[in-house]
Structure prediction request, 384 residues.
Amino acid sequence: MGNYVGAPGSKMSRREFLAATGSTGALGLAGCTAPTQERIQAGQDGSATAAATQDGSVPTTSPPEVVNVDEQGNAVTLKSLPAAHSAHPLETMGGPVELPRVWAFQADDGNPSVPGPILRTTEGEDMEVTLDNTDGMRPHTVHFHGVTKAWEDDGVPTSTGIQVNPGEKHTYTIPANVPGTHLYHCHYQTHRHIEMGMYGIFRVDPEGYEPADREYFMTVKEWDSRLPRMAAGQDVTYDPQNRKPDVFTVNGKSAPRTLHPEAGSPVIVSQGDQVRIHFVNAGYMSHPLHIHNHRFQRVEKDGGVVPEAARHDMDVTNVAPAERHTIEFTADSDPGIFLLHCHKVNHVMNGGFYPGGMLGGVVYEEAMDTEIFSQLMEYAGYEA
Prediction:
């Protein structure tokens, strides 16, 4: 099991989580009786990727990690490798939901993940990003949204003439000159390579940045699973001009797996916390994201600060493809469990089962020792 729980960003230790749930109380049984015939073969908590899938060919993905690039000499190496991705591996709530083949980004010696690792740096720094494709099977690039960079570092092979072929490495210089939350992705055959999982968050903290009490990163995406299935050798045909999304994820997971404290991304808060969430849309459709019982303000968009005079209380923010919205709110509701989801209701489904898909939750620590939270953990497959 991992050391921390919750969505990437603020850290709650697993020990603190167990204490909040009552440890060996009702939650201690969660997952033991979950209605499922098959559990994930490797990486039950999302952290063990060395184990291969059933046919022994590829690793499984982990949840995305935050990489503080400043702390490692302003340099990071990215690789992409084939992996199996379980959006929700159990039979609960319309599962299992599987993407049998994705192309996952891996930072340095970390675990491959979909979304890719969150690369975090500070305004005024130059980040050296080496795309290592020495063991690759196809060309790739990396394109960073938001910041202003040299022409040859734009990551677009059509307009720069630079692509990183199998067996090659290439280093991009990415200046952190636009504070905010941004997106990076492969820009070679973009319509396929993003659909296969090659995307992640790039965060530039402004000078003197003051984090909130709780700060989280959330990437949403819809998938047409025919492409990952075709890449895994299944007898299906994918047409990017006739795309039919059938898998909907938050940080790579579909509900109820989104609520798994280690493999998923619950937004864990305590009453009175100031909460900041960085939403990124890595898909090809707009997603109106709604939080129950909390009014928030949108304070940043695409790295631009929203002037205070233009802010207002809201409970839905519609995030277009490639957009980034940062919202802030106070955790001042009756302590409980409140949904966070796309309000295109067919996106909150696993196949024909509702609820599922692009749905997460704001979970108060004060509600973690309740029977309903224990039941949700059971649906998510969590074992204390």
Observations:
- Residues 66-210 form a domain with the Immunoglobulin-like fold (CATH 2.60.40.420).
- The chain has two domains: 66-210, 221-380.
- Residues 60 and 84 are 5 Å apart (CA to CA).
- Helices lie at 14-21, 157-160, 190-193, 226-231, 371-380.
